[in-house]
Amino acid sequence: MNPRRVDRVVFFSNPFCYGPTGKAASLVHAFEGASVPLVYAGSEWGCDVIGTRCSAVRLKALDLASVREFLASSGNPGVVSCMDSVSVRAARDLGLPSVLVDSLAWFWSSIPSDFLLAETYFALDFPGVREAVSAHPRIRVVPNIGSPGRRAVGDGERGKSLLHLGGLQNPLDPGVPTEFLDLLVLALAEGWRERGALLICAGPGSAEYLRRALRAHPSPSSVEVATLAHDAFLRALARADHMFTTPGITATMEALERGVPVSFLPPMNLSQWRNLRVFEKHGVATNRCAWEPAGGLSELESMDEHASAGVFPGIARSVAADARATALLISRLGELFSRHPDGGAQAAFVARYGADGAEVIASRTRELWRV
């Protein structure tokens, strides 16, 4: 492909959970030193995650008219999209160069047609990716993204555990999953006593709900709740001795690349449910809490994210309404809090699938766009 000079780089991310925006933040960092301005355009929460790494412009998420109007008034930009088909389509309509970064190429029943509108398509490495993209020779498989600065241990001693709930941000089911959070608070009140400091990272709505719920229960005083920009989250992660998270890929890879053991909470959307099955197969999820017994929820096999949007909040509601199911889940979460996963298998996984994808993508794109 012939180089195309641009006068700025604009980053977009699908506002689905933490992953796409966390990857966008890592890409912004990897582009630092470019000869043109860097801009992130997206939702209010996305701008908060990006923080001060670059200029940020709030746009109505996934709205083609808003994105097209913004790009049309932005000079001659290049578009970097993390899982956001709308920005790719807008770039195509305006004749602008675009890069698509896909962390779920292994997940799709077929590659989304709008993703294929991108001039350059990077698929992040993960089990099953190479088979999934084999019919599309222009899709380049690159290492996964574990975020920059990954080998820095961080300042201060490790010792605080981290509970990551960025995966609860879901535009397909935009409310706060109150029943799930109530169950988590009950589990912390029962199972976190005398386990040391715990930092819970969540989006604004979930964080505020958790603060109120924790005040209403005899919860350990060592539990803190915060909404963090990506830089601050990585600093907290570098100092953590254990991370608990819903089973998203991005936060998991960021933790594993830093040598932080990861244990998994029950999934709250379809991709997390499938991620967890992959992690189990590769020995990454030896310490996990799932909703269903082995073989359960088989109806999800034929669903996509839209069709399954209400399934997992519905499971949480059912559990919360059943005293025996609630007691069982609290017991399982207590066991999760007390154990550590297989660190060797987790280290082997991140070594196999890589974590420097942001640097690889930035290097190739800066060459293409002469920035």
Largest sheet: 7 strands, parallel
Work out the radius of gyration: 20 Å
Subunit arrangement of the protein: single chain
Strand adjacency order, main sheet? 3-2-1-4-5-6-7
The DSSP helix count reads 14
**Could you say which structural class the secondary elements and strand pairing correspond to?**
alpha/beta
Distance between the termini: 16 Å
Low-confidence stretches: 150-156
- How many β-strand stretches? 12
Overall residue-averaged pLDDT value: 92
Outline type = globular
Query: In percent terms, what proportion of residues is strand?
Result: 15-25%
Which series of helices and strands comes N to C? EHEHEHEHEEHEEHEHEHEHEHHHHH
**Approximate helicity band:** 40-55%
